[in-house]
Structure formats: C-alpha cells, structure tokens
Amino acid sequence: MVYVAFEPGTTAGAQVGCFTEAPATACFGGYNGGLVFDCQNIPTNTTYQLTATFRAPQTPGTYTALIYIHDFQSPQPWSEYDPNNNRVTLTYQVG
Question: What gap in Å lies between CA 66 and CA 11, rounded to an integer?
C-alpha cells in the first residue's frame, strides 16, 4: 500500500478536498490537517498527477507544505535507487 500525503506547515490553510483519479483509489484526511491519497502501488518508471486543494492562509507571508510518499508494508516493499528521496517541501507565498 502506497500513500501520497500532502501536509501543510500551518493550520491556517484548511483542507478543501482532493480528486481520486487513477491511480488513487481513495482520499482522506491525514496528519496535521493534511490530505492523503491511497495509490495502492506505483509501478516503476511511471508518473502521476494528483490534485489536493487547500484554502490559503488569510495572513500574508511565506508558508510551506510537505509532500511525501509513505509505504505501509515495511521494510521497504519496493526497490529503488534512493529510498531517502521520497519527500519534498513546497514553499509558497501569500500576499
């Protein structure tokens, strides 16, 4: 089971929803007010586009959101070159 998670760095931006198009089979609330897609599996050499919608914070400033892939069949159910590159931090500005 592979989850793709979107976790806002602040609770000022509330989750609105997400679209469950293939490969995602479900979308639900995650940690810290985030959203999680259940993708079941992600085949080698594939690329997917997932959409998660959040309401922007009302206070101007710089914010972050963590986007990461998490597997629930440890130890590593897949083989990959670098298992430590499964997260990225998105920085955005509200002005």
Answer: 13
CA atoms within 13 A on the CB side of 84: 0
For 22-43, write each residue's pLDDT tens digit: 667 788 888 777 888 888 777 7
d(CA 15, CA 7): 10
Q: What is the pTM of this model?
A: 0.73
**Three-class DSSP category at 32:** helix
Backbone angles phi, psi at 31, to 5 degrees: -65, 150
The encoded tokens of residue 69 equal 């892939």
Q: How many CB atoms lie within 10 A of CB 68?
A: 15
